[in-house]
Amino acid sequence: MWPFKNGPGDKPADKQQDERPRTEDPKEVDRVIWERTQQRIPYFEIREAVELEQKEIKEAKKLLGTEIRAKCSAEIDDYMDCVVDRFWTILECKKAAHVMRACFLKYETPEFVDKRTKEIMKEREEAGESLMRRVERAKFNRFVTQDGWVPPPKGSYTPGPTEEETMNKKFGK
């Protein structure tokens, strides 16, 4: 056996086929997805969910920054007019810089940023623009749910049937 693809004795890549049988039955597809999900390593599932959530937060903050800059566009324009074609900009444009920063601080409070970031993430999810795609990922990743990405915190969890019992009941094993 050659260690690389398409080595001597191997089938060409275009003629290789997946040996697993294919099925169109939705119950069978769900069962196969569940079985393969059980083989995944939990650490990597959590890592995937965390990375996707971080990317989603980054996108939401980018949109939030655009909104805040739009609200303070007059102050930004005044500061930029002052800065352009000057040698000692720090001394000359200090007042315009303070006015611009005051505008940012007026709109960019921690409470507003947290609230608006969550709103933007929710809007993106409802519009189908979210990177998380919770409904689709919930099938494949045990740590992604429709409400969040991790199981509920301790104390709020009520034990029920295990995932294996649920799937066995669903697929009649």
Structure explained in plain terms:
The protein is mainly alpha-helical. Helix content is 61%, strand content 0%. The chain is built from eight helices and no strands. It has helices spanning 26-38, 42-71, 73-83, 89-92, 94-107, 110-127, 134-140, 163-171. The relative contact order is 0.12. The model has no long low-confidence stretch (mean pLDDT 78).
Number of helices: 8
Kindly, what is the distance between the CA atoms of the first and last residues, rounded to a whole number of angstroms?
39 Å
Total beta strands: 0
The outline comes out as rod-shaped
Mean of all residue-level pLDDT scores: 78
Task: Encode the helix/strand succession as letters.
Answer: HHHHHHHH
Binned, the helix content reads 55-70%
Sheet of most strands = none
State which percent range the strand residues make up.
under 5%
Structural class: mainly alpha
Tell me the radius of gyration: 26 Å
Low-pLDDT parts are: none
